[in-house]
Write a structure and sequence with these properties.
Chain lengths: 488, 34
């Protein structure tokens, strides 16, 4: 399949649009808080869609429809778990984190928050958490670039290296220039595009199948097991898939959106917009893959993950198809840019400023942030040059690793006054190590997704170590009480 | 033979995901009042 002229034109218009947003955001960025957190002036709707778009990578338009197409309804469990996890994150973490990060010396990154929350003067908590973020997000970014470039190589015959450089150049440009505001506003439009694609495509394919009842009947005639949500599922299997939702509490690129909302009063609106977007998008992906089974009954696809791409090509005119395909690019780009910016902010706020240049001006910090974006992206591109590179396997640890290492720490730090710095440190380390070790084991209980034991052990470690530790200092408790008072 | 989705499939496909949207609507109104 080659890239047709309408598709190419649509892509170019889309990429130029992203660059324009980067330029506008550049003019609105004056200091480091603007660059890494948008100066905490994000509206609820933009925060919600940018959190959703940066959360959902190409998996939403490729992986999930592909899984439904290949196996049927028993693949919905991750979507169910993710919806519940995202809702709980918005409901219980978002507002408190927004308030607490402001009380804790106006913290602008997750490591910054952890250090200020526990008044940790050793900087140990900041350094360890920033290192974990930097390491995993560099590889995560790289894997995103590999995924995008392979997709365009396979779908449109574009050279892998060309696709890699073009995609990366656009992402680097707008992130470099406009920082957080550019990332959030591009994510917002990318989120809208993804939503549009995931509403239109399933409606078109179900209509082409002859309606919903007919589509279900046709899928059942091909293979009735694809209608069964429990087909070949064990209890442990369902728990593992739903446990993906636990990951939300510890994803730095998602929870940083909560910190950036202009006021905690915006959270209910953001939650409603974010959850509606997410659930409808997940339904769109599920129904696209499911109805695709009936649509391609006579000529099954070789690669199930191309079900969305192939449907857009055969069902729509090339201009509409171009827009819908830009949605896939959106899904990939909106995740990469957010991870790139979180990594850059870890370098500037958690290493450069505290260790190298305490007196650095805001202007200098913004420029160091920009240079960090370019350097991290270049490292990611170099790694991505070899798609078979073993280091990219590290990505498999990222969602579970962040979820298990940071999730319980974030939750307990917001709700438990007695939690101590040592509890947080041991929790982060134990959560991360559990994920890494558990992943090497298999069979029986070890088939459970590693986030489950990691999350449980991290929580236990925090509770036990904190209780054995001496009580948190007075200033830490005063901060906690201030947050409680503000939220009442 | 006409095939349909079982009750269990319909239940898990709709109830949890629709519930979180309904809860978001309810909390939007209750928390906005506060």
């Amino acid at each position: 399949m080659d890239m047709s002229t309408p598709t190419l034109v649509t892509f170019i218009v889309y990429l130029i649009g992203m660059l324009v947003i980067g330029l506008i955001a550049y003019r609105l960025t004056d200091n480091l808080s603007d660059y890494v957190l948008g100066g905490r002036r994000l509206g609820g709707g933009v925060a919600a869609l940018s959190a959703g778009a940066s959360d959902m990578s190409g998996w939403l338009l490729l992986g999930l429809p592909g899984a439904l197409y290949a196996a049927g309804m028993n693949q919905i469990w991750i979507a169910v778990g993710l919806s519940i996890g995202a809702y709980l994150n918005w409901q219980f973490v978002a507002r408190r984190l927004r308030v607490y990060t402001e009380v804790a010396q106006d913290s602008i990154t997750v490591p910054d928050y952890l250090e200020n929350r526990f008044h940790d003067r050793s900087k140990l908590l900041r350094v360890i958490s920033a290192l974990v973020i930097l390491l995993f997000f560099t590889f995560y970014t790289s894997a995103g670039m590999v995924g995008g470039a392979i997709l365009f190589e396979q779908s449109f015959g574009l050279d892998y290296t060309v696709a890699l450089w073009v995609g990366a150049a656009v992402i680097i440009s707008y992130t470099f220039l406009g920082g957080f505001l550019a990332v959030c506003w591009t994510d917002f439009f990318q989120g809208l595009l993804m939503f549009l694609a995931l509403v239109i495509t399933p409606i078109a394919v179900i209509s082409a199948d002859g309606g919903w009842a007919q589509a279900v009947s046709n899928v059942g005639a091909i293979d009735p097991t694809r209608l069964d949500v429990f087909h070949e599922m064990t209890v442990l299997g369902i728990i593992s898939l739903m446990a993906w939702g636990l990951g939300y509490f510890g994803q730095p690129h998602i929870i940083v959106r909560f910190m950036a909302v202009k006021s905690s009063g915006e959270i209910p609106k953001a939650r409603l917009v974010g959850m509606t977007w997410m659930v409808l998008s997940l339904y769109g992906a599920i129904f696209t893959g499911f109805a695709g089974i009936a649509y391609f009954a006579d000529q099954p696809l070789e690669n199930p993950e191309t079900v969305f791409i192939t449907l857009t090509q055969v069902l729509f005119n090339p201009w509409v198809a171009g827009v819908l395909l830009a949605a896939i690019l959106s899904a990939i780009m909106s995740t990469i840019d957010s991870q790139l910016l979180v990594s850059s902010s870890a370098l500037v706020e958690d290493f450069y400023k505290p260790f190298l240049r305490k007196q650095a001006s805001q202007q200098e910090l913004v420029w160091v942030g920009r240079i960090a974006v370019a350097v991290i992206a270049l490292i990611a591109i170099l790694i991505a040059y070899n798609p078979q590179s073993r280091v990219l396997d590290l990505v498999a640890y990222a969602w579970g690793g962040f979820g298990a290492a940071f999730g319980p720490v974030i939750i307990l730090s917001l709700f438990w006054r007695r939690m101590t710095r040592n509890g947080a440190l041991v929790g982060i380390i134990l959560g991360a190590i559990t994920v890494v070790i558990w992943k090497q084991l298999s069979g029986g209980i070890f088939d459970v997704y590693e986030i489950v034991p990691g999350f449980i052990l991290c929580t236990l470690a925090i509770v036990v170590v904190s209780l054995l530790d001496k009580e948190p200092g007075r200033e830490t408790q005063v901060d906690f009480d201030t947050v409680e008072m503000t939220l009442k | 033979m006409e095939h349909t989705l079982s009750f269990a499939t319909w239940f898990w496909l709709t109830v949890p995901m629709v519930s979180v949207v309904i809860l978001s609507i309810i909390t939007y109104f209750t928390e906005s009042k506060e």
